[in-house]
């Protein structure tokens, strides 16, 4: 599940990107050790490339 769910349920188009889920996702035991910095960097580059493509 993503935070974009509320937008989708009300008919607002949205995109959601993830580096993956884990057993502690959105639980009190969720911790910084689960942050996938390499995955975030890849998604950032993908989004930047896409935005540059659609704006040129």
The ordered string of helix (H) and strand (E) elements is HH
Mean of the pLDDT scores?
A: 90
Strand content: under 5%
Range of helix content: 40-55%
Helical run tally: 2
Q: List low-pLDDT spans.
A: none
- Number of separate strands: 0
**Intertermini distance:** 33 Å
Q: Can you summarize the main beta sheet? A: none
Instruction: Specify Rg, calculated over alpha carbons.
Output: 14 Å
Look at the helices and sheets and give the structural class.
mainly alpha
Name the overall outline: flat
Describe this structure as you would to a colleague.
It is built from two helices and no strands. It is mainly alpha-helical. The protein has a domain at 19-56. It has helices at residues 5-9, 37-54. The longest helix is centred in the last third of the chain and has 18 residues, at 37-54.
Short structural description:
The protein is an all-alpha fold and 56 residues long. It has two helices and no strands.
List keywords for this structure.
single chain; mainly alpha; 56 residues; flat; 2 helices
List the helices and strands and how they pair.
Layout: H1 5-9, H2 37-54
